Amino acid sequence: MIIQKRLIQITCIVVLLLITSLFGLYQIAKGAELHQRNLLHLQFTNELHEMLEQSKTTHKLDILRLKRVISDIREQPVFCIKVINFLDRSIMRIIGTEEAVELCIADVKVADDILSEIDTYNNGLLDMGEMRNRLFEAAATFEEHSASFAKPMTDTVNLIISSTFVIFISFSVIVFFLIVYAVRGISASVKSIEESSKALEESERLNRELAHFDSLTGLPNRNLFKDRLEQQTKSAVRTNKNLALLYIDIDHFKKINDSMGHYAGDDLICAASARIRSCLRDSDTVARIGGDEFNVILSELSAVRSAKLVANKILASLSEPFTLLGKKIFISGSIGISIYPNDTNNVEDLKRYADLAMYDAKDQGRNRFSYYSEDLHNQVKDKLKIEEHLRNAIEKDELFLQYQPIIELNKSQIIGAEALLRWNNAELGHVSPVNFIPIAEESRLINEIGEWTLKKACEQLCQWRKKNNPKFQLSVNVSPIQLENENFAGIVKNIMDSYQLPSDSIKIEITEGLIIEEDSTSVTTLKKLSDMGIILLLDDFGTGHSSLSYLHKLPFHVLKIDRSFVTKLDRQAVTNSIIPSIIAMAHKLNLAVIAEGVETSEGLEALLELNCEYAQGYYFDKPLNAEDIDCKKIYPGLLDEQTKKYPY
Ligand code: C2E
Ligand code: MG
Ligand code: MG
Questions:
Q1: Which helix (H) or strand (E) holds 425?
Q2: What mean pLDDT, rounded, does the chain reach?
Q3: pLDDT at 358
Q4: DSSP string of 211-230?
Q5: Is the pTM of this model over 0.85?
Q6: How far apart are CA 456 and CA 452, in angstroms?
């Protein structure tokens, strides 16, 4: 483009240069011609003089010759007037040389006058002496005009020629610079074309790299990994050896990303990828296939169990502390393993199976590996089936609630109940909440199901409080997933308001398995619920390994000891088990205690001795249908001191 523009400019200026040159040449020729005419004028004037001198001696005037000479004289200014054009006249006016034109006009007039006087003489109306005098006068005027014409004419022509010359030189200089500029432009363009083709090559190389390598870790990405996996499976067939695919996921990576920021998260991914790489042979491939997910190909496995050794090595290396933002961070990984061709000889299935096995490792408690198996496959199929049916459970009216009484031990009286969800599906039969709640959580169906449960529980409680016991209370289990919804507290409030239930009539149970991050939405929701006056129960205490002092920072009011500790409770447990410490610690932290899963009188006796306030379990009542609940039930004499017999 630049070159084209320069060429157009150069062409225009060269054309102007040519025009100027031609104009200059034309002016030079014209100047020469005018001078020539002036000389002729002078020459004819001299001839006139000579004729007049001769006539003094011959006393004759050659009329014809006289007329011809005067006509020749006249012809010169006439020619000059014709040749001097408008432009010349304008220039002459500006520089003050227009007298040259006036002289010509005057000359012509003198010539015309004298010619008519010759005619008068010829007719005998003028005598010869008189005529000669007139002719002398005219010749003197012509001479004078000739002399006066030369200077302004020369000045004009000189000026025009020098201006043309200046213009010519200026245009030449401009053309010169334009050519230099254009040449430089052309070489710059050539250079920039070279540079852009280099940049293009570089960007193509980068694109190829991006298409195959992960920009953060430099590891092969999903695309390259796919190719490598296909190649390695083919070579496994040729060498008749096994190949293992490891699917590695960093546990709770999202929490690190959320709490320490994305840059720290990126650093962790890089450091973790380096550790994984260091556990492998050069011939093995590791690729980053997603945020915190890595795939590893262990090729030419001599024995399937070698995969287990590598998986353990990777888990051990990941469990070493990482330093992020100057802090020591501990992480773990979950690994799924599938084997080619033992598990499948289809590459896509191999990836899917490793993924399934990885989720199994997570379900098993993380920081471990799982091999893909037929059983796992069936489990996943069952899970998908459950999820599919669960989606329509509310619509098909398959869900219902049972209620298990909660007893205030020192009054031997029911104070409320725990609402427990039940699902009876036409095809699957009765499905335990232990099986379907985790699936509902994973698929997020729990939000809808949880809301349904809360509404049903409130509806039932409303009836009991109106008809049977106005102080009756209900505990409702709430999933950690529901707490992550920042509108959850509002949803609870709306439902309770719609049944006009006071805030202390519904209690919410949250399982201890939930690891609650400080400043998370879940904590905010818990605080909002507590501020609304809702009592919060920490369910299944003892299973989540949380520190009691940390949990005390959260707004819980009651602690429910997990039934796994309670069912096997006996008299010895009062001194031997962990239960006394839990109850004592809870009381110190001003938390009331409910023991769930009380099945035996020995257990109950131990709990009474340890000052546990509330209990729940098959010993008192199993979960019952609403109509079977006695809202004022008194459990006669929990411990009969005399007989040491227990009534249940
Ligand atoms: P959970 O909240 O700890 O509920 C207590 C579980 O212990 C109930 O099992 C109950 O039937 C059982 N149980 C009560 N007394 C005894 C006893 O003496 N011995 C034995 N062995 N078991 C006893 P269930 O109903 O199968 O519920 C299991 C879990 O499912 C619940 O544990 C809770 O975590 C979850 N769940 C139940 N309903 C809901 C719900 O509506 N929402 C949510 N998110 N989870 C629920
Ligand atoms: Mg519960
Ligand atoms: Mg429980």
A1: strand 413-425
A2: 89
A3: 96
A4: HHB-TTT-SB-HHHHHHHHH
A5: no
A6: 6
